[in-house]
UniProtKB/TrEMBL annotation:
It comes from the Bacteria. Belongs to the UPF0260 family. It comes from Roseicyclus mahoneyensis. InterPro entries: Puta_zinc/iron-chelating_dom (IPR005358), UCP006173 (IPR008228). This is UPF0260 protein C7455_10748. PANTHER family: UPF0260 PROTEIN YCGN.
Length: 148
């Protein structure tokens, strides 16, 4: 990967490896959201996708996730314009899309994959798997976005 590529290379010019490395490992995009049909307001819950590992905050089956969870969104430089608004506020893909810098705790900046957890930005230890909570009860699990 090129030195501090995230500060100087446009997303569409990043290598696949650089693009993947933008993910900070927070796991927040793997939490289910609830949308109010009348107001359009979106609330985050701590009910996680069935493939999320609550300890690592990574997908348990990343390579085949689209087969197992068809609704999982695949981020690309081309689709960011459509999806950035509902990504977590601290998501590196969203920050880069909005022309903002990465936070100090991002592993690319800190050089340490643990800082995203130490800063309280990730979902480590706070999630419940979606197969344990009926959808009609998700309302009881609404949270504020960690780290914001
Ligand atoms: S919210 Fe963004 S940075 Fe965090 S895990 Fe999801 S894609 Fe990666
Ligand atoms: S399939 Fe994997 S990457 Fe997609 S939402 Fe679920 S845990 Fe996250």
């Amino acid at each position: 990967m090129r030195d501090r590529f995230w500060e100087k290379v446009r997303p569409e010019r990043m290598t696949p490896e650089e693009w993947e490395a933008l993910c900070d490992g927070c796991g927040k995009c793997c939490l289910n959201k609830l949308e109010d049909e009348e107001t359009g307001e979106v609330a985050l819950t701590r009910v996680a996708c069935r493939l999320l590992d609550d300890e690592t905050c990574r997908c348990g089956q990343y390579a085949i996730r689209k087969t197992l969870v068809p609704e999982c969104i695949r981020l690309t430089p081309q689709t960011m314009g459509d999806v950035a608004y509902f990504m977590p506020e601290t998501c590196a893909y969203r920050l880069i899309h909005e022309g903002k810098p990465l936070y100090w705790w991002h592993p690319l900046v800190s050089g340490d994959t643990e800082t995203v957890h130490e800063a309280g930005v990730s979902v480590r230890g706070i999630t419940v798997p979606e197969f344990e909570v009926p959808e009609e009860d998700w309302e009881d699990y609404i949270i504020e976005e960690p780290g914001t």
